[in-house]
Design goal:
This protein is of the alpha/beta class and about 325 residues long. The chain has helices at about 60-65, 100-115, 125-135, 160-175, 185-190, 215-230, 270-280, 300-315; strands at about 10, 15-25, 30-40, 45-50, 70-75, 120-125, 145-150, 180, 215, 240-245, 280-285. The chain has one domain (about 10-155, about 230-315): Rossmann fold (3-Layer(aba) Sandwich). The protein has a nine-stranded mixed sheet with strand order 1-2-3-5-4-6-7-10-11, sandwiched between helices. It has a two-stranded antiparallel ribbon with strand order 8-9. Helix 3 (about 125-135) links the parallel strand 6 (about 120-125) and strand 7. The N and C termini lie far apart (about 40 Å).
């Protein structure tokens, strides 16, 4: 049995970060989620942050910058990720991205109960894909959505893009947990402090080379991406932020000069192409020199991204209360 804490307590980030466990319906391995909060709630507007694949919330400096823009900051470690990963669980394993609706709705209920009238859902990469579909399916749950390099298609050759979903679905039918791919460590190496990067994070929760890609997870991703491709009806304002360019687009090799100045995991053109299919009120902001996680970019592009988020929220929702 693992410990479940339903009250706020000290978080691994220390300082004024606190966290609490969110109990989930039993799906066989005791999955839980974890909600993190920065400081005491003092505003009526909040941001709820969703991380990406092979990831968890650790961007404390980023959180403080956004909070200074007039919001309270919350973050959710989804089931089988980061703070929510328990012994014996397969990291990140999920059969349908809609499973995450349970913890997002529970987190939103807590955020609302703490006095927040307005909530902005901010999703990075896979979290951006999850946030987009959540906003489509729950139109009254949010006031706005911010997307940080949302993952709307795989960055690979046209042939592999075409057949990856079918291959993953067949493999998942045979063995949902089968490892069908592994990620490159180039991105992780470029950002972690131990390998010359600027950021320190738990390599057990966010490995340099990422977690293995499993069949049921990739099948769920491809189904979700196809749903975005067919067109959605997100009825709240959306801000999509991406790097201004990709390195290694279309499955090509990443040049050394691109590693620290571009998105080397995804093709930003896939994100741009999706703007017209998400909803009627989508703003695109591109960040020169931005990395895949814009919040982990160098000082100038990171500041560009953070200012864009704060300014857009205040323009669309009004001054912070």
């Amino acid at each position: 049995m693992h410990e479940v804490t339903t009250a706020w307590g000290p978080d691994v980030l220390g300082g004024d970060f606190v966290s609490r466990t969110i109990e989930l319906d039993d799906d066989g391995d005791g999955a839980v989620a974890t909600l993190v909060r920065l400081g005491e709630p003092t505003r009526q507007r909040a941001i709820l942050y969703l991380h990406g694949f092979s990831d968890y919330f650790f961007q404390a400096e980023h959180a403080r910058t956004l909070a200074a823009g007039g919001v309270d900051l919350y973050a959710l470690d989804l089931r089988r990720y980061g703070r929510s990963l328990r012994e014996g669980q397969v990291p990140g394993l999920v059969r349908d991205l809609a499973e995450y609706d349970e913890e997002i709705l529970a987190a939103l209920a807590i955020v609302r109960a703490e006095g927040h009238r307005e909530v902005v859902l901010l999703g990075h990469s896979t979290g951006g894909l999850v946030a987009t579909l959540f906003a489509h399916h729950h139109p009254r749950a949010l006031q706005a959505v911010v997307l940080n390099s949302p993952w709307y298609d795989i960055n690979d050759t046209p042939l592999r893009r075409t057949f990856s979903g079918t291959v993953a679905a067949v493999a998942a039918w045979r063995d949902p947990g089968a490892v069908i791919s592994r990620l490159s460590g180039a991105y992780g190496t470029s950002i972690h402090a131990s390998t010359g990067g600027s950021w320190d994070f738990d390599l057990g929760w966010k490995p340099i080379e990422g977690f293995p890609v499993r069949a049921s997870w990739l099948s769920a991703i491809r189904r979700a991406q196809r749903r975005v491709a067919t067109g959605l009806d997100v009825r709240v304002p959306v801000l999509m932020c991406t790097s201004s360019r990709s390195g290694g687009a279309g499955g090509t090799a990443v040049a050394p000069s691109q590693v620290r100045t571009s998105d080397i995991l995804l093709d930003v053109r896939h994100m741009w192409d999706a703007v017209a299919r998400i909803g009627d009120d989508v703003t695109l902001h591109t960040v020169p020199g931005g990395l895949h996680d814009l919040a982990l970019s160098a000082d100038r592009p990171r500041a560009d991204y953070e200012a864009a988020v704060t300014d857009w929220i205040q323009r669309r929702l009004g001054p912070p209360a």
